[in-house]
Design goal:
The structure is a single chain. The chain has three domains: 23-31 and 467-610, Aldehyde oxidase/xanthine dehydrogenase, molybdopterin binding domain (Aldehyde Oxidoreductase, domain 4), CATH 3.30.365.10; 34-137 and 198-290, Alpha-Beta Complex (Aldehyde Oxidoreductase, domain 3), CATH 3.90.1170; 392-461 and 617-768, Aldehyde Oxidoreductase, domain 4 (2-Layer Sandwich), CATH 3.30.365. It contains 19 helices and 30 strands. The longest helix is centred in the C-terminal third of the chain and has 27 residues, at 534-560. A hairpin with a 6-residue loop joins strand 26 and strand 27 (640-650). 27% of the residues lie in helices and 25% in strands. Helix 9 (329-340) runs parallel beside helix 10 (371-389), helix 10 runs parallel beside helix 18 and helix 17 crosses helix 18 (733-745). The strands form eight sheets. A seven-stranded mixed β-sheet has the order 3-5-1-12-9-10-11, with helices on both faces. The chain has a five-stranded mixed β-sheet with strand order 7-15-14-13-8. It is of the alpha+beta class.
Length: 768
């Protein structure tokens, strides 16, 4: 049954809090990040960025920069092969970016030229010597202006298509209009969800090294080495295997480091031109003004209910502000509609999603990838409906909650779901009904829920490769080497994958070495870390490889002890033994040694693969959860203090409780910033808050008391029953806090973020 623990998991590595393998190096400063790396003869790169949001490039004069002593190379778009790149696997027709602008700039910060010099200060000076003549064009900075009939075209080739709408996505389930006629109440609300920065602590950095045979090695702060390899090879016009991409330690990504970016191309291209290593490191100002962001969205949602609280239909329309280029926006446009239909049963559902170009920095993938916006809307409307219907908000959710076997027709099916149990548990833990009924006037409690994918099935429609792959090498000293393309970007996947392999082979985690995220050394079939895909997809590939290793070793034990086929061979505690005859065992090391000798010194190596089958368009599995926020609002200042967050969540079998706890706390931090403090201050496309002094992420002192409980279910598609626990947890904090603020003040936020000024205006304390 899906909602039961896996009875086959013995005591071992899975379910144990194992400290991260990289923790000592990071804590002591030994960890090597890309910005720390240095090679002999290395050059330093800098980018020239557009100072205007929209213009044609009339002329670029690089002569002064090229003559500056110490400058070794200066390039502009016309020096490059001029090959576009973008989201090539899912929507290849939407590739619309050049590594350097060719004849037009489309946002303030668009990359125009690059310099490589012997010193970063010289490179910076050279950038200032490049003269560019611009013919400025009108700009558009929100989706309404971009879709207006006379709006300037940001991409000229869209004139014969849909103007500044780069792509649209539809989902249709049932007859929405007919079912709305059966509703007793209908809610129709509009929301504005803002863009935010990933705010990872390590800015993007890259180091490229050429060799004498025309190949390139790239060390880069990325969460998707294979994506970078493929796109970089394309833009450089090189065979794929002439580009080697290595991921060093990464100081956070959250979706912002999963694409090829201009500095990676420029480093590689100029390294080939000069024959020297070239390194780029972005500044915090560059990250905040030109980095990828979460999509700002304008959403209209119409939901119908019966008097007893049953949902009858939903009509959901979203306009995504994609900025100047598509980036991962087409995927986000589809996923937003998918998440709009999650959590609750909608007998009829209609989605219309539009990705719109504007003259701002491009938006891309960010933790949750369309779900935080869609589910903020869904959860807020559930709370509005509960009040109108006179039903407790948690009871309303329980009545409509998705359960195992539910489906979105033609899109996805729910294989395991602990949503009901999460709602029940969070109500109990937070003392929801009793405490909420006795709160003082300036305090409130709110509920927010989530569901999220465990890797996307849609992401490799156009590839011959498996979704995930790994290689396992077993040695006669009892140790094992795991090679995987999966990328640890701070979430601890290197540790979790070792736990999965250790559990399967019955050995200690400490006896496993891992090599990850190197496109030459590790199997290719992995798109990296995004969509919460690593534990489920790479974990299943590891199980496949381990099964093949065990099949070979089981033969050795059977031969040694003259066992017939009625004995099942098991692996635990460093031993290989017959289940029904425990005295018949040998050590794992001895079993490997026997196999190697029997096969005349052949190495014991197995490759494992995983590709989900018949899982709809979206994902093999979904996580679920519910969260209660308790807040206090100062009636005179409007300042919101979040006092406690209580969470119950279903991530299947918990592989590493310590890692799950860390993901929860980090997710709450990110959710608090999204709802209460983080926002870009912009004027005509220019970002004005360019440091962390002005872009307000929550500090440690802003973190509330946290209480949590994992509702363990068994997901048949997951390794040992596991599902995701990284991105979904970032979703519920915003709607839970918003609901609590409404409970305390009567202010319902439909335009994020919640600020003291908005609260004071809503409560009549501020009239101007």
């Amino acid at each position: 049954m899906a909602n039961k623990k896996n009875p086959d998991i013995q005591q071992g590595a899975v379910g144990r809090s194992v400290p991260r393998v990289d923790a000592p190096d990071k804590a002591t400063g030994k960890a090597m990040f890309t910005a720390d790396m240095k090679l002999p003869g290395m050059l330093y790169g800098k980018l020239l960025r557009s100072p205007v949001p929209h213009a044609r490039i009339l002329n670029i004069d690089i002569s002064k920069a090229a003559l500056l002593p110490g400058v070794k190379d200066v390039i502009v778009g016309k020096n490059t092969p001029g090959i576009k790149y973008g989201n090539w696997r899912l929507f290849p027709q939407t590739q619309d970016e050049f590594p350097l602008a060719m004849n037009k700039v489309r946002f303030i910060g668009d990359e125009v030229a690059a310099v490589a010099a012997i010193d970063p200060d010289i490179a910076e000076e050279a950038i200032g010597l490049i003269d560019v003549d611009y013919d400025e064009l009108p700009g558009v900075f929100n989706v309404d202006d971009a879709m207006a009939p006379e709006a300037p075209l940001i991409h000229d080739e869209m004139e014969q298509l849909d103007g500044n709408i780069s792509i649209d996505r539809n989902i249709d389930v049932g007859d929405v209009e007919a079912v709305f006629a059966l509703a007793d109440i209908i809610l129709e609300d509009s929301f504005l969800l803002h863009a935010v920065s990933h705010a990872y602590l390590e800015p993007c950095a890259v180091l490229a090294q050429p060799d004498t045979e025309g190949r390139i090695t790239l060390w880069t702060s990325t969460q998707a080495p294979y994506i970078v390899q493929c796109l970089l090879a394309s833009t450089l016009e090189l065979p794929e295997n002439h580009v080697r991409v290595i991921k060093p330690h990464v100081g956070g990504g959250f979706g912002g480091k999963m694409e090829l970016r201009p500095w990676e191309f420029c480093a590689a291209f100029m390294a080939k031109r000069t024959g020297k290593p070239v390194k780029f490191v972005l500044s915090r100002a560059e990250e905040l003004t030109t980095g990828r962001t979460r999509h700002a969205m304008k959403i209209r949602s119409k939901v119908g209910f019966k008097k007893d609280g049953t949902i009858v239909a939903k009509d959901f329309e979203a306009y995504l502000d994609g900025g100047a280029y598509n980036s991962m926006g087409p995927t986000a446009t589809f996923l937003c509609g998918n998440f709009g239909a999650m959590l609750y049963r909608y007998p009829a559902y209609r989605y219309r999603g539009y990705h719109v170009y504007t003259n701002k920095a491009p938006a891309g993938a960010m933790r949750g990838f369309g779900a935080p916006q869609a589910m903020y809307v869904s959860e807020t409307q559930m709370n509005i409906a509960a009040e109108k219907l006179g039903i407790d908000p948690i009871d309303l959710r329980l009545k409509n909650a998705m359960v195992e076997g539910d489906a979105i027709e033609g899109v996805t099916k729910i294989s395991s779901a602990g949503f009901v149990e999460s709602l029940q548990k969070v109500a109990e833990m937070s003392q929801w009904k009793t405490k909420r009924a006795n709160l003082p006037s300036n305090k409130g409690m709110g509920i927010g829920c989530y569901s999220f994918i465990s890797g996307g099935v849609f992401n490799w429609f156009n590839t011959p490769y498996h979704f995930s792959a790994c290689e396992v090498r077993a040695y006669d000293d009892g140790t094992v080497h795991l090679l995987t393309m999966a990328s640890d970007i701070g979430q601890g996947s290197d540790t979790v994958l070792r736990q999965i392999l250790a559990q399967s082979l019955g050995i200690e985690v400490e006896n496993i070495r891992i090599t990850s995220a190197d496109t030459t050394m590790t199997p290719k079939a992995d798109l990296g870390t995004w969509g919460s895909r690593v534990t489920l997809m790479n974990g299943n590939a590891i199980l496949d490889a381990a099964r093949k290793i065990k099949e070979k070793l089981a033969q050795m034990v059977s031969l040694k002890f003259n066992l017939n086929v009625i004995y099942e061979i098991d692996f635990a505690n460093g031993r290989v033994f017959a289940k029904g005859k425990p005295e018949s065992y040998i050590s794992f090391a001895e079993a490997v040694s026997m196999w190697v000798k029997a096969n005349r010194g052949e190495e014991l190596i197995a490759r494992g693969y995983y590709t989900p089958r018949d899982k709809g368009l979206t994902t093999p599995a979904y996580s679920f959860g519910a969260q209660v926020a308790e807040v206090e609002v100062d009636p005179d200042t409007g300042i919101v203090s979040v006092e406690k967050i209580t969470t119950a969540h279903d991530c299947g079998t918990v592989i590493n409780p310590l890692s799950v706890e860390g993901q929860l706390e980090g997710s709450i931090h990110m959710g608090l910033g999204y709802i209460l403090s983080e926002q870009f201050v912009m004027r005509e496309g220019k970002v004005l808050n360019t440091t962390f002094l002005d872009y307000k992420i929550p500090a440690a002192e802003d973190m509330p008391q946290i209480e949590s409980c994992a509702i363990e279910t068994y997901e048949s598609e997951g390794p040992f029953g596991a599902k995701e626990a990284g991105e979904g947890l970032a979703i519920p904090t915003a709607p839970a806090v918003a609901h609590a603020v409404y409970d305390a003040t009567g202010y319902r936020c439909k335009e994020l973020p919640i600020t003291p000024e908005k609260i004071l205006r809503a409560t009549g304390k501020l009239t101007q």
